[in-house]
């Protein structure tokens, strides 16, 4: 029987509408499979509209691979697919966790088949490049963006800034940002967030200030990034200003923003303010609880951390592995050996969390800080995981501190064999020889470092004064107030000696006399920063500094004396924790 062409078209349209309608209500993979069969039965396997809807439905059901296997089968007519269909597949893969690179592969197929991308294609492709972190891949897509003329589209450029930041090309991102014909709050947020994630916190804060001058209103995402930068810098006054700005501009305070505020106050040294904010939260997430527990660990408030953990359990929020790292660290910094062992055992017995190497490291640190070197070594030998260099370095430091010098020497020599270019191993061994008073071996370590071109990481200290961050590096003489700073250090030195201070010179790596060793210690970055603060702030003002390394024994001792002599509270955040010095006493009780 012969049907008129018009009737065939009508039937095709009816079949198309039927497929689209049932795809709209599809909620299971079984239904999707049945619809797939129906599509072939109705001869719609090349219908762009139906295939696009089938693909988006598959994506909604987390079955994009199923749709892709059909769309890109060996006999599929991929050259006939339109831009919209390709975009749908690319977007679906770009939004997955494991298959982002497939989005780029589909894009390459699209270009290979001479299907022209549009301005909606590239945000998804660039997002996929960001997800896999491949800078060169992102640069090649950038070239295509220019070729196809989308290098002035704000949405494409915003995603490109994000891509470069995610791939480690923050300088490339800044070039794109600076050359954008127009920008919006998303552009600024992407660039500020990129700086914050890359640890370029000073640049993040500076750009945020430029954003205000430009009159662009930030959103909550921007503020989370700025607070992250404040946390990294230890810039408490700036963090307080940001909190006030959020209130003043009525920026919606989501749980993410509230958690960022808590984290900022925790890492900037105001733990009590962080707790007050935490208690005001109506809905406390695992991030909220973990932030304050980790904060308590940093401030050496182990019993309070344990109490919070128990309250967390009673509230019905189950802990995760990160929570336990904070909890075990809190026990370690407070000498709570029995409590730490109990919580470590409860990970598997009560919460079914398999300990990771970080948890084992916390336990080694717990025993080591408490002087239980034998128990720490026994624990390491019985671990089901191979100990990493961090664990061995922890043991070595414990050996040096508690007099097990021969064992520490043996372990550190093994570390140097395993990591011959890691400067911290040589510094550890040098410190052990210093404790042994074996200056010849100590000199050999210094010579060995010189021969291999290995340099000790210089200590640096940040201090925030009058809304500006100042950085001091050990031995630096380039500061505008260098003369006054060193005069203050001389004053601090003789006042401390009058009060009974004796310099700890055994950790000085250089082969020089005792007087020169004391001079080298006086040029440590935290002493420079404290001297600067004493010069620039009124008497009695609290001093807050942030150090990139663990505070050394001599600076810890000296800061106790300075706090008493000058009647100053001095808050020091080092690589591991906070030290609150007041009236000649440190909050760590010399347990750090």
From TrEMBL:
In this protein, which residues make up the domain named DYW? 500-592
Q: Which superkingdom heads the taxonomic lineage of this protein's source? A: Eukaryota
Query: GO biological process: what's one of them?
Result: RNA modification
Q: Which UniProt keywords apply?
A: Repeat
* Gene3D superfamilies documented for this protein: Tetratricopeptide repeat domain
Q: Could you tell me which residues the PPR repeats occupy?
A: 82-117, 153-183, 184-218, 285-319
Q: Does the keyword Repeat apply?
A: yes
The record ties this protein, via Pfam families, to: DYW_deaminase (PF14432), E_motif (PF20431), PPR (PF01535), PPR_2 (PF13041), PPR_3 (PF13812)
Q: Could you list the residue ranges forming a coiled coil in this record?
A: none
Which PROSITE patterns does the UniProt entry name for this protein? Answer: PPR
Q: Which InterPro entries match?
A: DYW_dom, E_motif, PPR_At4g14850-like_plant, PPR_rpt, TPR-like_helical_dom_sf
- Which terms does the record give in the GO molecular function aspect? RNA binding; zinc ion binding
- Family according to the record: Belongs to the PPR family. PCMP-H subfamily.
* The protein's name in its UniProt record: DYW domain-containing protein
Which organism does this sequence originate in? Answer: Lactuca virosa
């Amino acid at each position: 029987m012969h049907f008129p062409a018009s009737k065939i078209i009508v039937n095709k349209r009816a079949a198309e509408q039927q497929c689209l309608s049932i795809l709209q209500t599809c909620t299971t993979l079984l239904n999707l499979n049945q619809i797939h069969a129906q599509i072939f039965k109705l001869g719609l396997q090349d219908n762009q509209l139906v295939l696009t809807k089938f693909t988006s439905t598959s994506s909604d059901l987390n079955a994009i691979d199923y749709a892709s296997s059909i769309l890109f089968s060996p006999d599929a007519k991929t050259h006939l697919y339109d831009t919209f269909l390709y975009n749908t597949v690319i977007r679906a893969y770009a939004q997955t966790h494991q298959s982002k690179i497939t989005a780029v592969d589909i894009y390459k197929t699209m270009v290979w088949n001479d299907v022209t991308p549009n301005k909606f294609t590239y945000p998804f492709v660039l997002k996929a490049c960001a997800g896999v972190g491949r800078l060169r891949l992102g640069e090649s897509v950038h070239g295509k963006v220019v070729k196809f003329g989308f290098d002035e589209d704000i949405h494409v450029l915003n995603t490109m800034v994000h891509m470069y930041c995610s791939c480690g090309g923050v300088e490339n991102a800044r070039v794109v940002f600076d050359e954008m014909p127009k920008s919006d709050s998303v552009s600024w947020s992407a660039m500020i967030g990129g700086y914050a994630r890359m640890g370029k916190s000073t640049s993040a804060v500076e750009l945020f200030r430029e954003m205000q001058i430009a009159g662009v209103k930030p959103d909550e995402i921007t503020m989370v990034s700025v607070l992250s930068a404040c946390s990294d810098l230890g810039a408490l006054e700036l963090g307080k200003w940001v909190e006030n700005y959020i209130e003043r501009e009525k920026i919606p305070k989501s749980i993410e923003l509230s958690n960022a505020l808590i984290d900022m106050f925790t890492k900037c040294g105001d733990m009590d303010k962080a707790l007050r904010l935490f208690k005001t939260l109506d809905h406390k997430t695992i991030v909220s609880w973990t932030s304050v527990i980790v904060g308590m660990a940093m401030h050496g408030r182990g019993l309070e951390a344990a109490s919070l953990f128990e309250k967390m359990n009673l509230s019905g929020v189950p802990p995760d592995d990160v929570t336990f790292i904070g909890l075990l660290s809190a026990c370690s910094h407070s000498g709570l050996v029995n409590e730490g062992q109990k919580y470590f055992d409860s990970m598997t017995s009560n919460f079914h969390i398999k300990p990771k190497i970080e948890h084992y490291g916390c336990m080694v640190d717990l025993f080591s800080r408490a002087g239980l070197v034998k128990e720490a070594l026994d624990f390491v030998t019985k671990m089901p995981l191979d100990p990493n260099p961090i664990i061995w370095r922890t043991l070595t430091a414990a050996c040096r501190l508690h007099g097990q010098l021969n064992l520490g020497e043996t372990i550190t020599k093994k570390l140097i064999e395993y990591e011959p270019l890691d400067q911290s191993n040589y510094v550890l061994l040098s410190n052990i020889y210093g404790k042994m008073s074996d200056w010849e071996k100590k000199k050999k370590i210094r010579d060995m470092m010189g021969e291999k071109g290995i340099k000790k990481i210089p200590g640096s200290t940040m201090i925030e004064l009058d809304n500006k961050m100042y950085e001091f590096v050990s031995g630096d003489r380039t500061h505008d107030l260098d003369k006054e700073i060193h005069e203050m250090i001389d004053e601090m030195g003789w006042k401390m000696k009058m009060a009974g201070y004796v310099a700890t010179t055994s950790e000085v790596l250089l082969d020089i006399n005792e007087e020169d060793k004391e001079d080298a210690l006086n040029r440590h970055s935290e002493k420079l920063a404290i001297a600067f603060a004493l010069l620039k702030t009124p008497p009695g003002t609290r001093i807050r500094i942030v150090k990139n390394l663990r505070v050394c024994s001599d600076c810890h001792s000296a800061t106790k004396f300075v706090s008493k002599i000058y009647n100053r509270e001095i808050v020091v955040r080092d690589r591991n924790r906070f030290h609150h010095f007041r009236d000649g006493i440190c909050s760590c009780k010399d347990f750090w």
